[in-house]
Amino acid sequence: MSAPASGRSWPALLRTLSAGQDIEAPDAAWAMDEMMSGSATDAQLAAFVVLLRAKGETPRELAGLVSTMLQRAPAVTVE
Questions:
Q1: What phi and psi, each to the nearest 5 degrees, are found at residue 71?
Q2: Interatomic CA distance for residues 46 and 8, integer angstroms
Q3: Among 3, 18, 68, 76, which residue is least crowded by beta carbons within 10 Å?
Q4: H-state helical runs in 1-79
Q5: Can you tell me the distance from the alpha carbon of 24 to that of 5, in angstroms, rounded to the nearest whole number?
Q6: Which residue from 9, 5, 13, 11 is spatially nearest to 55, judged by alpha carbons?
Q7: 1-56 pLDDT tens trace
């Protein structure tokens, strides 16, 4: 079982992780977007990373996190 794809929320996501269950890439991407936008509280961010690490990150979860970081990263011009 994974966190619901629609109607994502911190309580649902953290509940899934605390149960030792994997989350889907879109859920991880949503969490990273919340963190990078400044919408996540310090407590939500801390709970997410601690629970994800305690459970063990999956390639799918990491892909979701990385995809959001890449989407939000500013373009760098190299001259």
A1: -65, -35
A2: 18
A3: 76
A4: 10-18, 25-37, 42-55, 59-72
A5: 8
A6: 13
A7: 344 456 799 999 999 999 999 999 999 999 999 999 999 999 999 999 999 999 99
Report the residue count for the chain.
79
Q: At a CB cut-off of 8 Å and minimum separation 6, what does 29 contact?
A: 64, 65, 67, 68
List all residues 6 or more positions away from 35 whose beta carbon is below 8 Å from its beta carbon: 45, 48
Residue 12: half-sphere exposure toward Cβ, Cα within 13 Å: 15
Question: Among candidates 28, 42, 59, which has minimal Cα distance to 16?
Answer: 28
Among 17, 34, 25, 30, CA closest to 62: 25
Q: Give me the residue label for tokens 């890449």.
A: 70
Amino acid 61 reads E
Q: What are the structure tokens assigned to 77, written together?
A: 């011009």
